[in-house]
Amino acid sequence: MSLTTRVSLVALSCAFATAAQANTGTLSNPNISAVLDGYYQTGERPMAERTEGFGLGETELAISANIDDSFYGKVTAILESHDGETEINLEEAFIQTLALPGGLSVRGGRFLSDIGYLNNQHKHTDSFTDRPVVYRSFLGNHYFDDGIRLNYVAPTDLYWTMGVEAFAGDKMRAADEHGERDFKTVGVYTAYTKFGGDIGQESSWQLGLSYLRNENGVSYLEEHEEHEEHAAEEHGHDDHGHSHSAAYTGKNMFVADFTFKWAPDGNYKYQNLTLSGEYFRVTDIFAEGMHEEHEEEHEHEEHEEEHHEHEVDFDAYNTGWYLSGVYKFSPSWSAGVRYGQVDLHEAHEDHLDKLKLKETEVMVAYHPSHFSVIRLQYTKQDGVNHFGIEDDNIFTLQYNMTLGAHGAHQF
Amino acid sequence: MRINSKLKAITAAAAIAFSSQAQAELNVFACEPEYASLTKELAPDADIYTATTAMQDPHQVQARPSLIAKMRQADLVVCAGADLEVGWLPMLLMKASNAKVRSTEQGLFYAAEHTMTLDQLDEVDRSMGDVHALGNPHMHFDPYRMVDVANALTAKLAQVDADNAAKYQAALADFKTRWKQAIPKWEAKAEPLKGKKLIAYHTNFRYLFNWLGIDQVADLEPKPGLAPTSSHLASLLKRAEQGDIMAVVIASYQSDRGAKWLGERAKLKVERLPMSIGGNEQSKDLFSLYDSVISQLLEVK
């Protein structure tokens, strides 16, 4: 494992060096970029990647180009440093078709799922230091995986796109502390659609609806007493938990998102406003223990009885949402507020515990140029103690800078 | 299920929109108004959509949904190139999934690839600001370079719409006749501007000044792409005290804050020039844009 890590690092740096020497001729030549992110933080936000004190965020190395007339390819490697160990993670390694007719495109490999609004955006473009708590709870910060996507863009003046994806879904699996579950190898299927347009010269909007089916997302309740421990370990704050796995899973996830942007005369150089929000609902989060499950289908009555006996509400669902507003009031300064919360359930022996976490965040950012930002963020967090919250008030001072080719940003 | 019925309704709406689109002769997506205008001269029957206005900084445009939708339907995409649109155009191309415009082999056209740009750099370092190795992309204020671009664009039009190739050639001949008649008139009119010195916000008018023999002695931006700073403005004030500066010039989409500050202290006129068609009332096509810009400069002389 460590060998392959080293090899890929070397390969990556070689590619970086040779390509950087080549004289880029046109817009479509290889884009090579690195993102540097560092911070100082006074505490920790549950399930977030940034820890207390000095630290590095995701250091990103990306190479992308049209491979030939028919394919585009991109590699994004993420270097993360946790507890003195440096991990290399491939966040993206995909190819995408360029030449399919009829507005169709296929993407395959490892890539960011197109569900929701923020998920397909790279974290260095975020306006806040961490993803909203709903992303940290349900998508492991952001959901990238190995799989395939088919996307269609309609030939209409109103922007309308839709797509379906299938993923391995390993990081979206429900907890399996005994390693006895028979997980499906293709675990996650998604379907999404987005609409968007302009309102006059100054405003633009986008709406999205997404559905994610997670074949391995249901948590089976068992009568083991260890369950409590497992829950705390897997779901709660955990120093070893810097994986990108989702902390709270379920069989069905529904997402609705909106984005609205405004700039005077549609000129984003001096002032602009971005409002966005997303709502997540995750259902079918718990089911009866695996062995009983087979009976459940045949004997629904019995299931109902058992259900009552355990006092477990199998209709329980998890929700989360956030609203954010960011105003860039000069070419060099922006400020924003974000509120987000999650309402969760966690199995606790034979009943479900309700959990809630609320975050109110304020940030001010200084942008010396288009490629650099220095951000100060304050988070007021309000949650049940299960999350391991030690301090309700967190300050983060962060820099985030890109070097190399400036990639185009999404809406 | 509710989603399903909604989808059906939208599909029906999409089908209607699609059928009405199909009647248009040639769908052109122009990144900037100057290229929409040039395309209009060469393909008067084309259905041309302009992605940005003269009030918007073309360096900083959002790859917004409406632009993806328009690019999805384009037969031809006409842009300045030289990395002017690097912050948004690649994203639009990627998201629009339109094979017809996927590369310059097909229906993608970069004006800068068909003429010599000024200020090409062998080495580019970000400490130099937001500069482009491919040179200054604001070529549309050089009438000779625009002839090069018009020739190449006509060839591209004939490539993507071969049936009407003869029409495009005829339109090009007509445009060049009128354009070449206008050039000496502009040059004669602008004669008094020769050798004048200006301070401008950015290198937007590099080609105009190069053509008319105007000397841009300083930029309001300390580095390309960076907003004017007070220390930099103070140094410009010192420069202006030499007394040889004619005016401070900004483009239609640029903030006048720094320019006003300098103008008031150095007793210089601040002139806002249209960056493109639609940048002021007079600029309705390339001809009137040139007329307007030269007239405005003569007024502040």
TrEMBL record, chain A:
<feature type="region of interest" description="Disordered">
    <location>
        <begin position="222"/>
        <end position="244"/>
    </location>
</feature>
<keyword id="KW-0732">Signal</keyword>
<feature type="compositionally biased region" description="Basic and acidic residues">
    <location>
        <begin position="222"/>
        <end position="242"/>
    </location>
</feature>
<protein>
    <recommendedName>
        <fullName>Zinc-regulated TonB-dependent outer membrane receptor</fullName>
    </recommendedName>
</protein>
<feature type="signal peptide">
    <location>
        <begin position="1"/>
        <end position="22"/>
    </location>
</feature>
<dbReference type="InterPro" id="IPR023614">
    <property type="entry name" value="Porin_dom_sf"/>
</dbReference>
